[in-house]
Amino acid sequence: MPVRPKTPSEIDAMRVAGRLAARVLDMIEPHVRPGVSTEELDGICHRYMVEELGVVPAPLHYRGFPKSICTSVNHVVCHGIPGAKTLREGDIINIDVTVIKDGWHGDASRMYTAGAPSVLARRLIETTHRALLLGIEAVRPGGHLGDIGETVQTYVEAEGFSVVREYCGHGIGRGFHEEPQVLHYGRRGEGLELIPGFVFTVEPMINAGRRHVKTLPDGWTVVTRDRSLSAQWEHTVAVTETGYEILTLGASGVP
Ligand code: MF3
Ligand code: CO
Ligand code: CO
After folding, report:
1. Minimal-distance CA residue to ligand 1 atom 2
2. What are phi and psi of 70, to 5 degrees?
3. Is residue 70 in contact with ligand 1, taking CB distance under 6 Å?
4. Is 48 helix (H, G, I), strand (E, B) or coil?
5. Mean pLDDT value of segment 10-27
6. CA of 80 to the centre of ligand 2 (A)
7. CB 3.0–4.6 Å: which of 51, 56, 142, 250 could bond 26 by disulfide?
8. The dihedral sign for the CA sequence 65, 167, 106, 46
9. Which residue's CA is the closest to the ligand 1 atom numbered 7?
């Protein structure tokens, strides 16, 4: 199926949704502390989304997902289900927020630390963030999806880390997961040619050890097979006439 570019007014609506997702990530930051449970973080985000922002948390009941955010701690790669487990000093956590505002989705995630992380964890988090930004900077009309993948993969592997293959970025709009798939590995010049109005996420999952993952019996939680740490950052991005626009900037304006 061909990918339809969004119109300027559709992108206006997605910018609103994207910024609201980022506001949730801004809001939750001071709550990520040793001793807090991931279900407490879910509850705080859920109430803020529904009561303060007037948005729908997209993950809740999505394909049976039971909570309003994903919380992926340490060796959890993605889709961690909030629960009773509390964060401990040194834990790292990805919080992934997707909101629906006026029918449009905004999807973003960030890494947080409970207390002081290890030197390795800090380097993994910073490398993954840099990989996200380098991948986004490869977005331009006339470029290809493979430009993003090669940029992320080359940088991450030079740092001695690995790129998860089983999960990828995605087109987004009225649908949570639309075409195309945005791989975080590949070859420059390959894949779909980018056109102004395309909107998709870039969301590299990067492992400190080997790239292989498995899903736990709960059917959702994805973990590294070697139990190495994993990190992820995500933005929703639009292709513009001149390059790209990040739709999920927080109040600081820093991507
Ligand atoms: N927000 C995730 C993404 O970036 C998807 C979560 S699906 C859920 O695509 F069901 F686990 F919420
Ligand atoms: Co996403
Ligand atoms: Co997400």
Report:
1. 96
2. -105, 135
3. yes
4. helix
5. 98
6. 14
7. 250
8. positive
9. 59
Determine if ligand 1 sits within 6 Å of the CB of residue 245: no
How far apart are alpha carbons 63 and 58 in whole angstroms? 10
Ligand 1 proximity of 59 Cβ (cutoff 6 Å):
yes
Band of residue 2 on the pLDDT scale cut at 50, 70, 90:
confident
CA of 107 to the centre of ligand 1 (A): 8
The Cβ of residue 162 has, within 10 Å, a number of other Cβ atoms equal to 22
Computed over every residue of the chain, the mean pLDDT equals 98
Relative orientation angle of helices 8-28 and 38-47, to the nearest 10 degrees = 130
pLDDT at 1 over 80: no
Which residues, 6+ apart, have CB-to-CB distance to 232 below 8 Å?
72, 77, 78, 94, 96, 109, 111, 128, 203, 204, 205, 206
* pLDDT tens digits, one per residue of 228-239: 999 999 999 999
Query: Domains in the chain, start-ordered, CATH in brackets?
Result: 8-246 (3.90.230.10)
pLDDT of residue 253: 97
Give residue for tokens 């089983």. 166
| 108-135 tens-digit pLDDT | 999 999 999 999 999 999 999 999 999 9
Cα separation, 210 vs 85, whole angstroms = 26
Q: What percent of the chain has pLDDT over 70?
A: 100
| pTM for the whole structure | 0.99
Residues within 5 Å of ion ligand 3 by Cβ? 96, 107, 109, 234
Three-state DSSP at 204 gives coil
Are the C-beta atoms of 247 and 202 separated by less than 8 Å?
Answer: no
